[in-house]
Structure formats: structure tokens, C-alpha cells
Amino acid sequence: MSKKLIIAEKPSVANDIAKVLGNFTKEADYFENDEFILSSAVGHLLELAVPEEYEVKRGKWSFDHLPVIPPHFDLIPLEKTATRLKTLTKLIKRKDVDTLINACDAGREGELIFRYIVRHSNIQKPIKRLWLQSMTPSAIKEGFNNLLNDSDLQPLAEAAVSRSESDWLVGINGTRAMTAFNSQEGGFHKTTVGRVQTPTLAILVEREEAIKKFVPKSYWELHATFNTNSHSYKGKWFDEKFTKSKENAEARAERIWDLAKAEAIKLKCLGKSGTVSEESKPAKETCPLLYDLTSLQREANSRFGFSAKSTLGLAQALYEKHKVLTYPRTDSRALPEDYLETVKETLQSLTTSPYHEFASQILVSDWVKPNKRIFNNAKISDHFAIIPTSLEPKKLNEAELKLYDLVTKRFLAIFYPSAEYLVTTRITRVENETFKTEGKIMVNPGWQIVYGKSSPSPSVDSDQENLTLAAIVPNATVKTEEIDTIANQTRPPARFNESTLLSAMEGAGKLVEDEELRAAMSSKGLGTPATRAAIIEGLVSEHYLLREGRELLPTAKAFSLITLLRGLKIPELISPELTGDWEYKLRQIEQGQLKRQDFMNKIAEMTKHMVDQAKSHRGETISGDFAVLKTPCPKCGGILHETYKKFQCQQCDFALWKILAGRQFEVDEMETLISQREVGPLLGFRSKMGRLFSASIKLTDTFEMKFEFGNGDDLEVEPIDFSNHQSLGTCPQCNHHVYEHSTNYVCEKAVGHNPTCNFKVGKVILNRVIEQEQIMKLLAHKKQIY
Fold this sequence. Notes:
Structural class: alpha+beta
Radius of gyration: 31 Å
Distance between the termini: 44 Å
Largest sheet: 7 strands, mixed
């Protein structure tokens, strides 16, 4: 009897499918019944490799063997999951298997995982596609009743393979070319670049450069207090003839750039009478759109400080493990037009939850109606917006509950009417000068009732908080009782945090505040909602970025890379707009509007240009916006300038390399080293064996840099002395002691020279601090940390 082989992306998904389809017998790594065999990958099982006949055995990191553009790619198994791949290959080749069902995640990466497995097996069998929007039992049953034909998914498969191969070509060739360039004068200075990673880094570097170059300008505002017969109110001076100007982006109607002018207006108006006119207009505020992954990550970062990676992990758990949210890796913020009944069923399930008041109100009021802002097929790609399912959440941890609450409240609020306000603008004219007072009264909270704004309350602009704008007789005369001159300075652009960086990535470098415009631009963004978190984490792990509180700071290594790419004139790697256009072309492949080969030909051209530019600039000095050190030369007292490779004296031969043991020095670290003859301990050095280590750096009497490990020995890496530290318990991997060290709890055998264990737990997980008492309890009971 013939059977169908179902391949899921993860074992947990396979388990869920087995429960729904039923009557399975569990084997070692698969399930089987009379109709199906069911198994799973464990994420990616294979990676791209250059065919052996084209691979370079020696000199990979030299210009002589670049670019590497093979006519095709081979696949090689990942060592850690080789056993699972063998199991799947064996199942695919079974003679009683006549059909394969792709049950990997419904998106580009899930398609890639499945296609690579089938290609590796070298077997041709009919393929069907399970396409799930949620992991509820009813959704799984419906998915199996409506399996898609393989031909429907061919464009998505071609886009997935194109993305994988283009990232390899740009990443491998770019990294080898930039490493070769930086290693010309000796040593090995690995310099990683990526098709999406590096333009994202360029956004952060450009912002930091703008902050460093920013020169604050002084300006003044005039805040007046006016007196009527019954009460007083405040007003702010403004220029009625003001128009926005591209030449002066910092100009505002209320800003006065000359103190003498501000004082003259004050003197002119103080104590004088003025006339009042005002206008009241109704205003409406609609609920923001439903969440896609990027907007959810932005909101969670702004509200709770969750990293993009943490939010993705939480959303994936709420979808896969708890089954209370729909598929999270989506770039859509609308629902299908035939989804009204499903929405009503979900609302009905919420009538027995803590959200019962809002869900019941929506159903009783019959607010679920066709609405293109909510139900719109034209705004849906592979998946629709993230919304709750009809299942009741159980046993959610604090972080999961916060994210579920965000999604559920937005889902409820979107069906409520707009919030309604009465906005009053009062203009007071004194001696031909104008002062503005604004008040805003909530008339009907509408959707904001979901967020706790349940009663109308008067408010005014931020400068006049808690002041009710009391009624006044039309054309009344008032007296200018007081005028304060408020001194201010313009501020530099804000540093990026993960929320604002995700927004910039989504808009290909343009910070777009309008939600619907940002959604329209998302098809030309950097990366996809599913990959942006990994891109940010990759930049952090490669030491291009540092997290300082919620801010993201580019390191000296980041500035060095962007300076190099600018100097080599490779805009393809530093232009967010150009990279966003590549992402747009991948989307065109998905939609069958662009041929895969045309895309790959363009990527090959870009790769050749990138390598040729690096080759043609060999031996040249890269110019850039480099620092002048405050500390004088320790040898002659001359001025020290930063160059692309060194910190160099302008009067003698004193120079120090910017990179030591794979780590690039920050300017302030070099200032400390030269002025105090020692800096550190510093993290991030890498030994010849590739192991990370920390050390202090000393400047010797002969002006050479030397590693210092605390005991005077010039060893590459020294074991860390834990003799004065309290043991927190025994390592669950090797039974040695666990200690607190730096930002982690580590096994004593996981640090120092030749580590034999890799047990390490961060002190902060999902933005929650893990205290010593907690780690001691967990180690005592051998429990896992989630």
C-alpha cells in the first residue's frame, strides 16, 4: 500500500500534526500509520558549498582566487544534524512512499529547508504543500484538506534558492575580498560583510556620524500668560508666516533664533492688551493597523525593551507551542476578505476571557464588517496579520503574556470606532504678535477604551499639561500678564534602538512614521520580517554593534568597514536603497514577475564589481573622517592622527596598529593606552586557534603593545582564578563548579586556556535579570532555563 511522507520543519510541529491526524505508531525519528509517514527536519540540515572541482584548496583569503562564482552549487550536510538528514533521505527513498508533503514553515525559509532535503535525496516524487496560518487542530485539518500543488510554490522555491545563493556569493566574496585588502600589510584581519547586514550597519554608522558632527544651535521661545476677567491661560508665540524649509530642517514656527528679537517681542507685548479668537473642530483618530512581525517587534521593544530576537522567539512559541497566535513571520497587516466568520469565532472565544467586555461589545454592536483597512486581499502576501486564535492561553510566562496581550488588544481595538476629540485652537494677538493655545478634549474614547481610556478628559498640548482650556467670550480682550523667555538648543538625531532600526530597515533607510506608507514601502525593505532580528544579532556577535541600554552603538570596527567600502566605491554594500531593491526583486521572483536567472546574473555582476574594486585599490590609502587624538605622542610630543590602519604621529615614526589579535581599538581606548601606558582588561581578542579571550594591553618602553593577563606572563590565554569566588553549584554538563564571571554564569572549564566545556548562561534572559539565587536553584534541580 502506497503512503505519503510528511516532512515538517521541527519535531514539535510533527508531534502536533501526529496528534491531529491520529493513529500513528511512534518509531525512532518518525511516526507511521496506514496512510502517512511523518517526520521532521530540525531547521536547516544542509548548507551551500562550491563544487569540489571549483573549490580553492589554498589561498582562499587572497585576491588571486577571487571572485568565486561557480556555475552551480553543491549541498553539504551540517555535521550536527547529519543523522536526521540520513533518516529523512531513507524515508524519501522508501518504495512505498509515492508522494511527499512539504509541511515546513509556510514561508521562504521553510520552502528552502524542504527543497534542499529533496534535492539532496536525488529522488523525483510528486510534491504537495501544507500551508498553515495557525497551529490549531482545526487549522491543521483544514490545511490537509486543502493541500497546494507543487507548481503553485515553484516561484517561492526559486526566490528561496536565489536568496540563499545570492547571500553566499556576496557574503563569501565580499568577506574574502575585504579580508585580503585589510591583511595586505601582514596578519589576518577577517572583515565580514553581508548583502543585507552591511547596508544595515551603514544606517547606524551614518546616524552616529551625524551625531558626532552635530553642532547645537541656540534658540528661544516666548511663553505668555494671559488674564481674562475670570481666569488666566498660557500661550506660545509663533510666526504666522512660517513655512517649512529644506535648507533649515530645524526651523519651527515657535523658534526665535535671535535673543535680541525674542527680548524685543517680550518688551513689546508685556502688560499690553490683546484680542482672542478661537476655533473648535472635531477630530478622529483611527486605531493603528494589525501587527505584522516588524511592527510587533518595534512595539515590544518600545514598551518592554524586548530585542527583536526575543520578540520573534516569544511570538514563535505563542504560535507553535501554545497555539494562541497565528503565524508570526508575516509582513502583512491585513486579513483575508473571507475571514469575517473566523474573526467572529475568535471574538466569541474571547467572551470567556479577561477580554470579554471588549469582545462582547464588538459582537453585540455588529462591528465586524467588510472594511478594506482590515480585510484586504491585495495587502496580503504569504500570510496575513498576526491575530489571536480561538484557543485559550494556558501557562504563559510573563513575557509571553505581555506579547499575547499586545496582539489581542490590537485585534480587539481595530474593530472599535475611531476615537473622537474636540480640538480647540485659540489665537491671542498682542501688538501684531500671535500666541497659540491648543486644547484637546476626548469626546468618545472609541478604540482607546481597550487601552483603558474610558472617560472623556480635557487635555492640552505638552507644554500646558493638566491645564483645562476654559471657555472664553468670542473676541474678548485679555491682558498680557507675564512672558517668559525660554532658552533651548537644537538636539542631535537620536541614536537608533531596535525599534527605530527595524523601522529604518523596513523603509530601506528612510524613517517613515506613517504606518500605511511604511507598509507600502516594506516590499523594498532591508531583509524580511523573519530575518531582521537575526541581522541585528549578527552585527552584535561580529562586534560591529554594542548594546548600551536600549541604544545600538556602532563600534570602531563598524566605522572602519564603512570607511573602507566608501573608499573602494562599493555602494552596493552600503546603500540601503540599493539593497532594498534586491529584496524587491526577490519578491518579484516569488510572484512570478522576474526570472531567477536574470536575478542571479545581476548578483554575479555585483560580486565581480565588488572584488574588482578591492583589487584595483590594492596598496592605496583609504581616506575617511578620522580622529585627532587629544593625547600627545609619547615619543616626541607631536600630534597623533588616526588613519585607516594606524594611530600615527605626524612628527616622528611612532605608530600603533588599530587592530590587534582580531580586535579593533576604539579611539578612547587608544587615548587611555597612550596616556596611562595600560588599558583594559578588554574583551574580544582572538587567539591563533580562533578562541576568544580578554586581556589588558600595556605599552612598553619601546612603544610596543603587549598582552597582560594579570600575572606578568606573556601567555596567549590564561585560566581564570576562581579561588576567591563562591561556587553556585555543579555544571550539568561536566559536574565542575559554576561561577559568576563577567556577564555570565559559567562552568570553570568553559573559560581560560583550552576550555573543555561550553556551559554558559547569560545574566539577562529576555530582558530579565537572572539572580544568583535563581541560578543556584536551577543548578540544584538540573532544570532548564527558558
